[in-house]
């Protein structure tokens, strides 16, 4: 698989409590271009650095101290968690901003937000432009080109396998079962009369 800088999201994390409020990504990983093993990346900042230049500067196990392609992978690409795959070469968020990747509650789509230096959230480049227009003092430090609202691709197979998804489905099934058994009872009582 040639996909470069991916992000696995852990399903059912505590971020579900405050839906849409916090970052959905629970773990970062990168695939070695040589052996194709997955290596976890410990911080978001490091991940964003790797992702920024991924095409010109592909990642290899040997970039990590004391790591080589001989070592077993840190993480397996499987359905034990939901995986989302980022596009390469997304610019690093400008200073004093944070890029948030948020999974929708129904796991259908992700949204990108930037937290701007004034604490407000930008949902699109229009919001960034508006911020720069009202706060021109940031114009020399923050350029609109540094923002990317490119959403990662959700790996659907891993969503349908995830425990969160299964729980949701099971709950739905319970509801259906519950309502149909009610109906049965109603039918039963009516036939008694
Ligand atoms: Zn390797």
TrEMBL record:
InterPro entries: DNA-bd_dom_sf, Methyl_CpG_DNA-bd, Znf_CW. Keywords: DNA-binding, Metal-binding, Nucleus, Transcription, Transcription regulation, Zinc, Zinc-finger. It is found in: Nucleus. One of its GO terms (cellular component) is nucleus. Pfam families: MBD, zf-CW. GO terms for molecular function: DNA binding; zinc ion binding. Residues 83-154 form the MBD domain. Coiled coil: none annotated. Its main location: nucleus. The keyword Zinc-finger applies. Residues 22-77 form the CW-type domain. This is MBD domain-containing protein.
């Amino acid at each position: 698989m040639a996909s470069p800088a991916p992000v696995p999201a852990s399903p059912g994390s505590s971020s579900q409590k405050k839906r849409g409020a916090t970052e959905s990504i629970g773990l970062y990983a990168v695939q070695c271009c040589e052996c194709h093993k997955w290596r976890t990346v410990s911080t978001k900042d490091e991940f964003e650095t790797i992702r920024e230049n991924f095409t010109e500067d592909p990642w290899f196990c040997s970039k990590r101290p004391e790591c080589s392609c001989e070592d077993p992978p840190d993480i397996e690409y499987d359905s034990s968690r939901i995986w989302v795959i980022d596009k390469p070469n997304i610019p690093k968020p400008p200073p004093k901003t944070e890029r948030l990747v948020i999974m929708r509650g129904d796991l259908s789509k992700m949204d990108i937000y930037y937290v701007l230096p004034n604490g407000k959230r930008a949902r699109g480049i229009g919001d960034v432009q508006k911020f720069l227009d009202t706060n021109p003092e940031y114009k020399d430090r923050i350029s609109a080109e540094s923002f990317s609202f490119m959403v990662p691709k959700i790996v659907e197979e891993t969503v349908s396998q995830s425990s969160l998804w299964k729980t949701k489905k099971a709950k739905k099934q319970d509801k259906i079962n519950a309502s149909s058994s009610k109906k049965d009872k109603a039918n039963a009582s009516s036939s008694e009369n």
